[in-house]
Write a structure and sequence with these properties.
By secondary structure, this protein is of the alpha+beta class. Helix content is 35%, strand content 22%. The strands form nine sheets. It has a six-stranded mixed sheet with strand order 3-4-11-10-7-8, with no helix packed on it. A hairpin with an 8-residue loop joins β33 and β34. α9 packs parallel to α15. The termini are far apart.
Amino acid sequence: LFRGAVAPPADQRQASDKQFSVDMRSAILLSDKSSEVALGIVKGRCYRARGPLTRLPRGEAAAEGSLQFWSSAKEHVVCFPSSGSSSDVHFVATLRDHGQAIDEGEFGFGLGVEVGLRPDIETSAVWPLQASVESLGLELKKDQAFHTLALKAKRADGEVDDMPLVIARPREQSAPMDVQAINQSLASCVLEPVAGASRFICVGRPEALGREVQFLALCGSCAGQASDWELSIGPTVGSEGVVASTSSAPWAGWVAKVPQDGGRQTWTATLWRRSRRLTSDAGAEDHRGEGTLRRLTSHSHAIAAKEVLDTFEEADRTFEIIFVAGDAQVPSSDTFADSDFVRTAGLGLQTVVVLMLIAVVGASFVAVKFLPGPVLAGLPSASTALGALQFLVLLGSSEVAPPQLRVLQEPLAWLVPTEPGTAVSFGLIVLIAVAILHGLAVLQHLAKNGKSSGEFLPHGLLFGAWELRVLSLVALPLAAAGSKLATRGYSGITAAQAATDEGGPVSSEGGISEIILGSVLLTGLLAVSIGIWSRVASLLAEERVVAVELPDHEGTIFVDRVCDQLRAMPVAPGHSPLFGTWSASSGWCCAPAVAAIREVEHTGQPPFGIGVGSWRTIWPDGPWGAHKPTNKTPDEVAAAEGFNRSGSSLGYGRSTSTLSKGFSRGGSMASLPDEGAALYESGLSPVVASHSVTAQVRFAYKSSEKGPIAGVVGLPWLDAALPANTLRILQFIYREDDIKLCAHVGQLSGPLTSGRLSACFDWHDRCPYRWPGDLFMKLSLGVYAGALPFIASTLHSSGSIIHATIILGTLLFALAAPIIRPHVHALDNLALSSALASVAVGAACGQYFLDQTLVGTRALVGTLVVLAAIPVGLSAASCILVALFARRLWKQERPASTEDAVKEWGSSANEAYDRILATAIVTTPAEKHGLNQQLRVDLPVSTLAMPVHMQIKLPSAPSGPRALPADGRFPALSLPADLLLVPAGPATYEPKTERPCGALLTTGGVRLLYEKSSYNDGLTWQESVHQFFGQQHRELAQAAIRAIQERGSRHGNDTLVSIEVVDSM
């Protein structure tokens, strides 16, 4: 049962005494002229005191009766574990030899001397103790005010003494005392925290009516002759009870009968400070008794007297004790109603938090199940809400917290661990779990896209991108844990030094290790905050990161000056009837990475007169050109300059069949004469013009069928959107060339703003310093919350300054947030202001209610709850909107809401073009990619022509083949892939500009039909139809010609009739 079977030799035992922080004023068990044996506990203090009752309780258990438990005629040993210590109590008995050589005997206490514990007084089993050896732990549960056991000591002359032993600790750390019935089968007491006073409600069991109940009041700070505090119990008018108390005792006891007929009895328990006269011998003590309290503090954890009692300054502390029967009503009062209000407010806030968590989990599930929606949209409100709630829990769970905050935080205590060791473990587990999930996401990406995709890993999957965001969520409890460890270690060293000055060997190793661990934790968080702040500042100063307006959405975003990856076209839920433009701002945009591209560089300049390196500087959205690294050869640089010159929009086209002549695989807009290029570019639609960045795809990532839009390609009479899932197919077809498409600045991604530092450049942030500033703020609040007991017990003069700094500082930041606007949208800034204001009100409540003031309880607590509920509610609302938006995208027929994604698509700028939304069936012949049949890709398009999609189904009816309108929500037209995807050149300018009148599509190929015979290889379009089908399918050719002529005469020359031959067999 003990660590060590035989007592160590004297020289080793003397050294081992220093392993335990056992107070040298612990209870003396045995004493003679040469030595004495003392009993103490690790992290606590023991006293000898007589029992609190003048007569034994009636009907007491035989075991307790034989030991004379609670009797004032019997000396007891009473041990009080320190505030903040663990639930296990460890005993250590020591021998003090007064400098004389003695025979220490078998157990180290002297020849023939034995000391043991009886953990169960109902049995005679004894745990033998050995000198300076720590026993195993004896658990003291949180709901236990005291625990009884016995101490057995055998003297050298053989006489055995059984002594009652009591372990006591207040169940509520906010109160310096506790009250409980000795026989809890008859009655039980609980502390009812209320504003203005504290009272214990004792309720007798219904079956115990009329029976006597013995009550015990415990006050560890009142023990010992040197204590500045005394406990007294006095009955009020009409109450009966027998009170037995001594001025130096750590307890008081009285007896009362369980009231009948709804009656009640009331007592007052008063803690009052003795009048002490300063003498020359006590020069180190001031009028507050700091010197005495410092000597009473034996270890870093044993600071309850200063932590709690110093809170009440010089005033006496009075508790009301009410005793009623089980079916009686506790008398109502204003203060009691305030307590009910605080508890109800805490439960209400807990309900809102639970709803927020349900919304977060639901949104995450829907986003994973359907589409990766804008899951970061709710991060600003969720982060601020969690920080405010974490601070409230840490503030209310502090040992010096007033009852109001203690009651308010109880329903939310599950949100954050308050014990330092648990908090550190929790934070590390969360970070490790996120790192593991991050690694699994990387492996999933590699498995989905192939091993070669490792070279083109999306920047968002770089390690650090996820971890930094999660670090801000656990920074506050980690900082509080580090602060608690550091201050507790310092108190331990101070206590050890004080005990050493009195001649007691007390080790300070535990305190030093706690200071080191706490300092490392706090220094690490501070280093991360300062390091990232400096890194962001250097990136802005060097203009490696620039701020631009996000096209088609409210807000500015930060992009790398040199980008090498392409995002999807941003899509947001749009304007909300309830939240206005919040869900249409940049922070709500969903734009996952879709491809790795050739590096492009912003070649523009910032507006004149704007300071260099300012995050407020808004750069123009272009032009973007090829990046020119210095390590490239002149030929490579010249080749890179061949595309996207001056950021102009390019037209693309490639043709098959008769149009393949004259198309150049390497052609581009740059190769056109300046006059031809300008003329061609002027004919392109506003859709292509607004997507001024030309991206060359190096590696396309796999995407779902209803995935996002990667970019657009265009002709003067047609614009086509390229869904992300088609890039892989097109890259397979044109594997000898990079796929080129048009994009806008909001689709560009680089390793700086989208990689490890992406937490600083999230699209919901307007200021890139928001994240390191947020981390520093949580670090400061965590240090404050963790150091509150230390501030109350040690920093008397500067404590008020610290409290005022936190309160006024957070309040000023709350007022400044709408002005500085660290977030893009006003609602996110409102969430931040509300969270900071709730922190200020919480800290103010923590000081205001310590004065036991009744005024304003409901107003202050109500204000605190409302302020904390604002970011919580916004976070829940954002998660619900994210889930609804992801589901809406999944149910749409077109990929990723094409009309919302493609900038200028269907906008008023296109009204002059009178464009029609349709679907293009883009095909490429089998010889292009080496497969047995042609590949087909369906693309959303917007066209000036009026597309008519008709099908001729085989086998034909007996009356012959006939073209009938095809099914589908959007009309379809057939196009060869080369027409869209081969860059325009001098030889292909006119074919790309000319609008066809018809198109033929079979499993063998596609052909466009033009009114001008020059584009049909000198044939009329009717002759081209017969040539395409051949002599053996003359009936099909006749049916196709007939359908084109009928539709053309009906709708005019703007009609583009697509005839698709479908073999139903």
